[in-house]
Write a structure and sequence with these properties.
- The radius of gyration is 21 Å and the shape is elongated.
- The chain folds into two domains: 55 residues, DNA polymerase, domain 1 (Orthogonal Bundle), CATH 1.10.150; 268 residues, Aldolase class I (TIM Barrel, Alpha-Beta Barrel).
- The strands form two sheets. It has a ten-stranded mixed β-sheet, with helices on one face. A two-stranded antiparallel sheet has the order 5-6.
- It is α/β, with parallel strands linked by helices.
- 34% of the residues lie in helices and 17% in strands.
- Helix 4 crosses helix 5, helix 6 packs parallel to helix 8 and helix 9 runs parallel beside helix 10.
- The structure holds S-adenosyl-L-homocysteine.
- S-adenosyl-L-homocysteine binds next to strand 8 and strand 10.
């Protein structure tokens, strides 16, 4: 029988077949599966209840391709940024954001990004490759261990708001979420997971067809196509109308929560006219919340955050019109861990 080289592609049953085929016992499969998905071993040598000989055999037959922690930074506000190195020497980043009630991991889905949104640091990096489902899973496992170490509590939430566009790495992102939510692994509720997209209408609909149970965030950032084209090139092929339609389809199929993200850029999208147009879009989508995001300055990018007066007036305009709006203050700025600052510095 032929097995995938990547041991994490094997189901428990396939692992059982493998151990029988090499003349060993079936329960080794359960032990190995636990090392992979419960104890999150990142090397065969860690699987210490298997004999040395067996570990060497696994090492010869399979790859694990785990990511390794390369560097950890702690922000004065408690945010932790971790840099990871892949087996083929790429760097990626993940963040733990502690609040009173939550420990949220922000994870990456790609190395770099192909979308080049004009205000985002990651968008200036070239997209090197997609992350595999196990690399995405590893980030969660490692960030979880680090959260326990630093805060005495594991992760309560996960957001796909790190580097990359998750819906352009659709298959592996969904597979990683399947593992994160599997009872024989993390068993996290999908309601605690949010995938954020710059807006790929076709893939938003596909999420609906696949009846996913996690939440979706759309990075809207501008309330008309002229402005959105200027700051997010993806809007030229995925305009606001197509996104509204896709989100309605997604909601009809899944009833999962939708949030809109709106980063306030000084003099670009922060006028009351913008707020008015945003309120109109809000009415046309079954949106739970609009998160108004404070912009984080990125070296070499000529956008600035809105001043406090504009921010307050913008949010007040929406709140007065019964829009469920929240301001998301930036976290981890001092270590470039905030939204749009992840660029492997
Ligand atoms: N590609 C996905 C996932 C990245 S999420 C998406 O676009 O949704 C990262 C979020 O931070 C997005 O909403 C992004 O638009 C926003 N962002 C990017 N640069 C930022 C910056 N400098 N300050 C604040 N938010 C930023």
């Amino acid at each position: 029988m032929n097995y995938p080289k990547n041991i994490r592609e094997l189901s428990l049953d396939q692992l059982k077949d493998y151990f029988i085929a090499i003349g060993d016992k079936k329960f080794r499969a359960i032990q190995t599966y636990e090392w992979l998905w419960k104890k999150n071993a990142r090397d065969f040598s860690e699987m210490t209840n298997l004999s040395l000989e067996l570990r060497q055999k696994l090492e010869a037959d399979f790859d694990l391709n785990s990511i390794r922690t390369d560097f950890i930074q702690n922000s004065t506000d408690g945010t932790v940024k971790m840099r990871f190195r892949t087996f083929d020497n790429h760097l990626l980043e993940g963040v733990i954001i502690p609040t009173e009630k939550r420990f949220t991991a922000c994870v990456s889905s790609q190395i770099g990004c192909s979308l080049s949104c004009s205000f985002c640091a990651t968008g200036r990096m070239e997209r090197k490759r997609n992350l595999s489902f196990e690399e995405i899973y590893d980030q969660v496992a490692i960030l979880n261990e680090q959260a326990i170490k630093t805060f005495g509590s594991g992760l309560t939430n996960i957001v796909f708001m790190g580097m990359g566009e998750p819906l352009l790495n659709y298959k592996d992102v969904l597979k990683a979420i399947e593992r994160i939510t599997a009872p024989d692994s993390f068993g996290m509720s999908p309601k605690r997971i949010t995938v954020s997209t710059a807006g790929v209408a076709k893939m938003i609909k596909k999420l609906g067809d696949d009846a996913v149970r996690f939440n979706l965030a759309l990075s809207l950032h501008a309330a008309n196509d002229v402005k959105r084209n200027e700051i997010m090139a993806i809007n030229e092929t995925n305009n606001i109308k197509s996104l509204i339609e896709a989100l309605n389809y997604f909601y009809a199929k899944t009833k999962s929560a939708i949030t809109l993200e709106y980063v306030l850029l000084n003099g670009v999208n922060d006028s009351l006219q913008d707020a008015k147009e945003l309120a109109e879009i809000y009415k046309r989508i079954p949106v739970h919340t609009i998160n108004v995001i404070e912009y984080n300055t990125v070296e070499g990018i000529a956008f600035h955050k809105s001043d406090e007066n504009h921010t307050e007036a913008f949010v007040k305009y929406l709140a007065d019109r019964k829009v469920n709006v929240h301001i998301r203050r930036s976290r981890g700025k001092d270590i470039d861990a905030a939204c749009g600052q992840l660029a492997n510095k």
